[in-house]
């Protein structure tokens, strides 16, 4: 992969990034079809020198764009055109062509509900205290739901879906029929709890964000850097740092970034935000 240095990629914060790697999971990044083909050819040639061969069936391409109709690109390995997808999984998270995390959140919710059903006999057993069952939910179901949440941008719509999922769990744990006209406040009271899911997610995000900001590495650059190029028309999408700044009541984004340098101060800000809820 060292041979990719200096070749075209995307510009973030003034730095060129053309690949992401974790073990044998590799993503090549380019601004156009020609540059992407060039990167892939280099990887193929260097792999063959080591006696390795790219798996054409497992290698896919995706265009990230705001356009409703995605442009078709033609990328080849030894004359075989690679399949173009609008989503792919990388390190367990679903990456979508529109650059949003809606599909990933929906996938996480579905997986969490499926695993809840598998543990239904325990989680809905009234012979076990609700406190113990909630603890089981935290240990076995919530990690599935919140996997990769450190990188989520939580819009109002996403927050509503997550809060609805939290109530879905509690209503089933209490065996409340969907026909029963019980308010969420009543359900929370019977479960001896409050809404905690969004605060848990935000806490994980803030903890990870603070860790990233204290490291002068790629993660820091990607999180704080700006993509070079023209700004798109219309309302700009909310950024992770903006959502965190609002939750922490840290003023402006730059003030939040500065606060991460002081571990004690940052931890105190997170603790205060958790106490205040979502």
TrEMBL record:
Keyword Nuclease carried by entry: yes
PROSITE patterns: RT_POL (PS50878)
A matching Pfam family: RVT_1
InterPro entries to which the protein is assigned, alphabetical: DNA/RNA_pol_sf (IPR043502), RT_dom (IPR000477)
Keywords: Endonuclease, Hydrolase, Nuclease
SUPFAM superfamilies reported for this sequence: DNA/RNA polymerases (SSF56672)
Molecular function as annotated in GO: endonuclease activity
Domain Reverse transcriptase: from-to ranges: 1-95
PANTHER family: REVERSE TRANSCRIPTASE DOMAIN-CONTAINING PROTEIN
Record's protein name: Endonuclease-reverse transcriptase
Annotated source species: Plakobranchus ocellatus
Taxonomic lineage from the root: Eukaryota, Metazoa, Spiralia, Lophotrochozoa, Mollusca
């Amino acid at each position: 992969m060292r041979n990719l240095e200096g070749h075209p990629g995307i510009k973030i914060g003034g730095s060129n990034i053309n690949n992401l790697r974790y073990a044998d999971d590799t993503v090549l990044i380019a601004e156009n079809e020609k540059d992407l083909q060039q990167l892939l050819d280099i990887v193929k040639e260097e792999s063959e020198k080591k006696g390795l061969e790219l798996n054409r069936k497992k290698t896919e391409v995706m265009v990230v764009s705001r356009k409703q109709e995605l442009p078709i690109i033609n990328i080849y390995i030894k004359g075989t055109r690679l399949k173009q997808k609008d989503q792919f999984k990388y390190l367990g998270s679903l990456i979508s062509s529109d650059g949003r995390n809606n599909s990933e959140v929906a996938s996480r919710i579905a997986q969490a509900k499926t695993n809840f059903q598998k543990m239904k006999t325990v989680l809905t057993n009234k012979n076990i205290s609700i406190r113990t069952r909630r603890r089981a939910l935290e240990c076995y179901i919530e990690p599935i739901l919140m996997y990769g949440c450190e990188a989520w941008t939580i819009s109002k719509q996403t927050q509503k879906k997550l809060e609805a999922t939290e109530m879905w769990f509690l209503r089933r744990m209490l065996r409340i029929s969907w026909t029963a006209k019980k308010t969420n406040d009543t359900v929370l009271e019977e479960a001896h709890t409050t809404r905690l899911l969004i605060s848990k997610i935000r806490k994980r995000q803030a903890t990870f964000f603070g860790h990233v900001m204290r490291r002068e590495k790629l993660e820091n650059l990607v999180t704080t850097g700006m993509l070079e190029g023209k700004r798109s028309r219309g309302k700009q999408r909310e950024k992770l740092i903006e959502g965190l700044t609002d939750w922490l009541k840290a003023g402006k984004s730059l003030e939040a970034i500065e606060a991460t340098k002081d571990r004690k101060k940052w931890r105190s800000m997170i603790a205060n935000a958790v106490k205040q809820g979502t």
